[in-house]
Structure formats: structure tokens, C-alpha cells
Amino acid sequence: MADRSSSNVVKKRPPQKGQKRRNDIYVNRKTDFAAQLERCQKSLDSSEQEVRIHGLGAAINRAINLAMQLEQRGQGTVELSTTTSSVKLVDDFEPEDDDHEEYSKVRTNSAVHIRVYKKPLSQVNSEGASKTAT
Amino acid sequence: MASSSAGNAKEQKSGRKRKRNSDIPGFAPLLSSTPGVTSQAPRAINAELFAASRALEIKNMVRAITEADKISGGKRVFQTLPRHMRRRAMSHNVKRVPVRVRQRAAFEMHTPTNKPEIQKKKSRYHRRQPKNLLEEYTRRQRKHVWLETHIWHAKRMKMIDAWGYRLADHPNDKGFRAAYRAVKNNCILQDMSYYGCIEVTGTQSQIIQAMRHLTNQEAGLTIAARCYLSGTREGNVMLYSFDQFPHGAITPVSFLWRQRTRTETATITEKVQHSDKHELQQQHVDDDDVTKDHVSEANCRIHEKEADSQLWIWSHPASFSSVFDAITEACISVGKTSVEKDSKFPNVVEKDGIANPEQLDQGTQSIPLVNDIEHSELKVISHRFDLLRLRLTGPQSHALLASTLKLFTGSKPKDSEDKSENNTLHKEQSTTFCNDKGINSSSLKWWKTSLDSPSDSLVQSTQSALWDKLKKACSPSVLPPGCVIGLTVDDPRLYLPVKKTSIASATEGINSEDSDSCDDTEPESSDLINSADQATSKLEKKQPSFEHVVTHWPTDVAGSRIWDQSVRREVKDTKMPEQELNRKRSELLVPGSPLDLKPAEISHIPVLLIQQPGCSGASRDTGASAGYGSGWDIILPSGWAMAFWIAFVYRGARTGGLKESQTLALEQGVPFFPNDFPDTPAGEAYNKKSKEDGESQYSRYPPAKRPNYDKLGAKSPFTPPWRELVKDWSTCEATSSKTAETISDSTKSSTVATSESSQTDDSVVQPLYVLRSRSKLSALRNYVLRDKKPQKRGSKHHVMMSNAPSSLDDLSSVVKDDLNSLVCVLVRMVNRNVPVPNSALAIPSTEDTTKLVKCKDIAGPVEPLHKGPRAQAAEKSLRNSCTREIVGFVSSGHFSLARGCGFGVAFCTLPGLMKLLSCTSSTGEAVVLVRGPSTQQYRFAYLTIL
What we know:
The structure holds two protein chains of two kinds. Helix content of chain A is about 30%, strand content about 35%.
């Protein structure tokens, strides 16, 4: 435990992702927002029935924003279902001198997983009909 | 008078003639003036003089005659004819030759004597005969060392001669972006076997003591660092010549201690090991933040007790011999040392995986330096051609490895041979070709003996359990940096896919198989993020979860029998030849079905897997995302490269060469050896070579078609003039510091003293070096961030900030000893353009920076042409040769696909960098001007101190 007092270099490992499918979109804060949106839209417009948007930590806002934009663009054809989770992240503490051990710590960060899926066609139609009726 | 006058006139006339005659050498001067025509001609000729003056003409004539005469002169008769007499097709048709020489021409035509004997090329069939092909390969290998995968590479890649090897430079297809994508999303495979391994054995304390002479803690963790001693991690360290830090840098090396968990001799070891396990178990019960201190301490204790520690040091071939010599020197200084050098070239010839059996065991030659080898305490052995290293880089490399490596099952300690056979049979699920149970018991295989010893099999079972658990990992980057796993795997040729597949389909197969075989990984819970709740519920059920393993890396999985020379040799010798394997395949009833061999026939190969961490997510502005460039290194015994290579390639790994390594290093933002190590001998050699190449290429172009570097003000356009630059800056700085403060008479003032006494030999006395001291570099970095501190990096980085110098004076007091040093920096272009190698880094003037602050898209200042009075006045130092002060040069750079802008690794002189940092406004990011050697335009770039 004496290690903790000495100076360390912190190195963060990337989070463990699941097996990445084609409709999994991991959101970061560096990529241009419009590009991310386009990517989601493209995936949604293709044969995929749903897109999963994953946002971790500070990217949660952006993930939500993306999903909302998709919903808005969909004009009622797209729905969202959101789950949250805690992701365990690992930080490696490397000592700066030879006499100390390295150690790693786990911290948790919150994540959001938004499933953006196309509404079943019948539902959309009936909704549209009811709308026009009113 | 008249006559006399006339005679005078005549005399004058003849005198003129005479004069003219006497001008011509060889003509005897006339003694008397005789009128008449005859007087015009010389009376006599001095033959000697005449001949001497005509010597050249005579020589030419004689040569022409002899050439005309000579039949073996290289020229044929019609070629000696004057141009106007030559005709088309004279060599074919004698009648076109003038009659005078026709006979000779006809003679020449029918006797082709003067041509060198052209041996008729043997027929392709003959050349392709295995024996002849092999002969040809051995002949070609005499000049350069070939890797085992050479033939495969030579068919697909541009091969270059480098460091005594013939290495693949880059693939022949267009691969720049493809290679980047492979690293980013998939997996790239490289043969790094040209890296040589040096083994040091002896007591650990002595090895550490020896290595202390070559490394320094200032430059980062050394070989003696506690986290490396247990052998669970591979480390990287910069080697310096014997006690010469910070001068005399040799090369960066990676090193690995052998993990001794399986020695039969030391029963103590095992006991401690068991206690280790107990501790580990306790740890698992503990909370997540428990360190593995005590375990490693226990491991250290083992090592101190043990007499024979083993250390592997992997070195680049450019510096291999110097590293070997340095290590030998260091070891000799500590204790008696015996040295085993490798033979210059490996005699093993491999052609597409078929080993030449007669030449197998000539790997190393023992050259004992000390007579009594038995009493020598330390041993330095070169395993240059005994070990192979393949490198897989990219997130998919883990899945690829998991699908390729079939673990040797039979790990139970009391597992009989029958059972292991059954196991393999079950695994194969092809009982149609069940063989008889006759097991060749004459030769005891190494894996059988290792099975018999309980410690070994215990280790093996923990290793395979760990590997099974790790199959879930999405990328090697989620594992601890540099972690090592030893595995025993089956011959990968037996599980080769029928045809080459893409990486996704290859790894999909293993994943589905995975979920079949081990029931604990259900398809949903494999997605950790998605179903964290399920994962936690699983966590309670199964003791050491994936996360737990990843954070608390077990300390007993790095052991492997690959460390034993005898095992390596045996594995190599008992390898089933490709030919034999193919024959067995051809005997299969259903072509393409998996081969079913007797358990005794299947080779089991000990391999070491070493994780390469790639970019750390420390979010320093190197730009690449965390985990970029992470991968696995696989260390194999020699002879097995092709088997594994093909197995990886068939599962969809992209392959790369040296150039891919270079671009990968640049994208990661790390200096590449030897290009970016100007203070090492290898780096100097590289610079010298690039200068020669550049000059020769430059001289091939006409002046109008090449840049005029004098006018552009590029003093050294082909290689960065490090020495000159450092000299300029250090002398200037030294003199200025002399005026500022009184010189103290410690060691560091020697620079000042020498610069005072004689400025010329300053650079000779104090060679340049690259600043690698961590504390000084972090002081420099913190100085850049001096005003950014309060906003962002408050509490998190308090440790780093504690020694942050706030003012320039503090900083200069920290680094005052290092005036002769270079600092490695990264430059990232603000706008467009690319920092090409040898671009100059210059300090922007205040107008420049204000302009940049005002408008970010501004192009940057322009250097006026160096001509006219300016050029004459420009006999200044390199530093002040342009309008902006030059502080450094780019050593390698190109467009970075990870960042989307030009990016490069550069070096600045320390005084220059300090001046630059003090000049720049403290906005947190230093801005520097970059100008390529063939342009006048300066461009802005952000500067990061590495």
C-alpha cells in the first residue's frame, strides 16, 4: 500500500466492449456529430431493424442527442428504448521508480445503451390513419 | 644601307618565320637566315622532342590500330568504321560491310569469340527441382540472412537489404490505408524475427547489478524494476553504453525475465508457489482494489533464492552486436562470464515450411571467452536464430489468436496417454480415421515429461484456464500492458482452414464454438456493456471473473518451456515435415477433412504471448485513440514460423513489412528505431545513409528540375544537421548563461568551459544526446501547461504538478546541465501540409502568433529567397540562417490517418525549445513553424513534448 503514496503514471485502458455487430455504434466526443448521425441513419435505413447506440461517461449526452435526432428525423417511424449500466474501467498505475509495484484500479462509469428501432409497419400505418382522421 | 635595310627586312621576316617555326616544338631553330622557299621548311628535326610532343597522337593512333587489329577488343569491324560508312544490319549481312574489311567481318561473324560465355539457363523444370532450388536459396542466402518466412514474403512484398537481413519493406498491393485500417479495426501480422534475442543467465542480483551499468532509472523503469522481476510483464528500456548515461545511447530494447514456477529442483519454489495460490485465492475474495503486492513479493523471494535467473533481451538488428558487446562488458565487470555467440548466418534453410533436416542443429556456436565455463557466474548467449517473433497488431488480433491457437489438452497431472489421445479424438470429432494405439515410446516427448511433473501441469492448466477466460476480450488492449502468457499449443497446420477466410468469419467460428464448449459464456453476456447486470450475476457464480483476471493478473501464467534450449531444439527437430503432412492429407478419403494424427505424432509447441499495449489512454495530445496499436507478440521456437504464419494469414490477418511498422509507430506517436534515434550509432548510420541517398538522387536531376536548396535556405536538405544545430544553440546559450550567472565548477560547467576556450571542438568534446530523463521532460511539459493548470488538470494530476516549474528560471535551473541535448517532440499541423522529414522547426515571431490567434486558417510566413546581398551576408550559423530562428528538425513525418492532419516526430535542441516555450503565449499549446526543405512557406504546427 506504500505504492499509493509514491508518484505514478496513470494509464487508462479502453473499456471492454462486447462483440461488435454492424449495428452497434459506440459514440465518442471526438468524431463530428453530423458524421455520427449520418452513420446511424445509414445503418437504420439499411436492412437493419435497429441501431444500438452506446455512450459511456461524458459521451452519454451525445448518445442521447443522437438518438433524439434520429427519432425526430424518423417522424414517428422510429422508437427508442433506453437502458443504463455501469461499466467497469481499469486504470493502470505505473510506478516511476524501480522499487514500487504497479497496480491497477477499477472504477465504474455510467453508460447508456439506446436501442433505436423501427416501429412495426402496421403500427405506423394505424397511427398515421388516426392522425389524419383527427 | 638599302641592302642592309632590305636584308634587315628579310631578316626580320625570316625572324618572324623562325619565331613561328621555333614555336612549334621539334623544329630545330635556324642558325642562319637563308632566303628562298627552302628557308620556310625546317632544316632538321629534333626527333626526340618531336616524338615527345606527338606522344599523345601516337598513342591514340597505336590504340586505334590495336583496337582495329584486336579481335578480342570488344569491338567488331563494322563498329570501327566511321559513322558515315555504317549501314543498317551490318552485323547480320556481310555484304553491307565495305569490301575492304568484309573478310574480317565474315570471320568475326562466324567465330563469336569476343562475347563472354553466356551459360544457357537451365530449364525451369530443372531449376524447380527441390534440390536445385534449395541450392539456389542457400547461395542467395550467403549475402543476407533470410527469415523463415522469406519465400512467402518475397513473392508478395518489396524486399530490401537492411541490417544484414533481407527484409520485407511493404506489400506490393496498395496498402497504406489498408494497413492503417487493419491496425484500427482488424489485425496486421508482421514477422519481427529479425529482432535478436540475447539471453543472460546467472543469479538475479548479479544480472541486475550488471544491467545497472547499462540502464538508468531516470529514463524510466529499468530491468531491475520490481514489476518486471516476477516475469509477468515485458518491459522496454533504453540501453546506454557502460556507465555513460545520458551519453552513449545504444538502442531501446525489450526484456523479459523468466518466470520460474516449474523448476523441479527447488521444492521450496513450489511451496511458495502454492502459498501464492492461496494468497491469490484470498485476493479473489477481497475487494477489487487489492493489489498483488504480496504475491509478487513472494515471487521476488523465490528469485533471490534461485541461482539461475534467465533474462531475455530483444534487440533490433541494427544494434544487435553493440548490445551484445555492451551486455558482455557489463557482465564481465560483475563476475566471470562465458559468452556464446551465434554463427553469422543461420544455416537453416526453409523453403515454404520444409526444413532441411541435415542443417537443422547448427544454430549457435559456442565461443567461450573464459576458460572455465563451469565456474562462470554469468552467461551471455545469443539466441538470434533460435527464437522467432511474430507480431499481431489490432483489436482483432486477440480473436484471431484465440481461434488459431488450439491449446494442448491433456493437462491433468495424471492424464494417461490413452486419455490424451481420447481427448484429441473427441476434439477432432472424426473417428473415421482412428489409428491404432501404438505410441512411439522410444522418444520421450518434452510435453510428456512436463505432464508428468505436477507443477508443470498445474501451471499449464492455469494457463489454459486463463486463456479460455480471456477469449471474451474484445481487444488485447483491455489486458494489462505487457502481460505475458505461456501456452502449449498444437501444431497449427492441423487446424488450417480449407481456404483463406476473412477475419470476421474466422473469428466467428471460434466464438460459436466457444459458446458451445464452455457454457459459462452465453451469447448475451458476452456483451459486457449491454448486460452488465447479468455479468455481475455471473460474477458471483464463477470465482475469478473476466474483469477480475484483467485487473489482477495471475502471477503464475508466464512460465513456459520455450525458455529451455533443449525443448526448443526438440520441438524443432520433431516437427513433421510439410511433405509428410501433405502426403497424409492426400491419403484422406474426403479431401479437405481435418487430418487425424496419432497423439504421438502431433507436435506441441511452447509459445509465449506478450501483449503490446499500444497507445495508452493517458489522453496526452498524441491524438491516437486509446488502445490503438495494441496487439500480441508471439514468441516461437525456430522452425515454426511458416506454420504459424500461414495459419494466421489463412484466418484473415493482413500482412505488413518494415514500412508498416514505421507508419504504425508514427500513428502511435512514438519514435521509431533507428530513424528517430539520432543519438544512437544506428540512428547516425541511418542519417548518413539517407543523406547519401538523397544527394545521389539530387545530383541525378538537372538544375532546372530540382530545388535550389541554397536559394531556399535549406542548409542540409537531406539529413538533419543535429551536431551543428546543437553546437549553435549550446554555445550561444552557454555564453549567455555565463554572463547571467557565475559559472560553478561542477561537472556540468565543462560545457561552458570548453565553449569558452575553443568553440570549434565543443561539439567534439560534448556529443549530443537525446533528453530521456523523465523528470526533466515532465518539467518541460508542465511548463507548457503552466497557465492551463487551474482550469482543467486540477486534482487528478496533482502528483505531476507538484514539481512543476512556474517560471522559465526554474525550468532553466532544472535543465541547465543539458544544453547539448535534443528533446523529442511531436508536431501536429494546425492547418494543411505535412511535416516531411528534414523540415526545419522555427520559432514564430510575435506577429506570426498574433496572426494565428486572430485567424486560425492563416497560412504562415514566407521565407524570402536567399539570393543577392542576402545570400552573401548569410554566412551565419545554422540557427540564424533564416528569418525565423531554427530550433530543430523533423526526423520522420507524413499524413496521419488517425488524426486527419500532417504529423511528425521531431527533435528540438533544449535551449531552443526553452526559448520557443517562453516566446509562445501560455495558452497551453506551444505553436511552432515548420518549413520543408524544398519550400519557402512556413506552416504552423502544434508541438507536444514527448
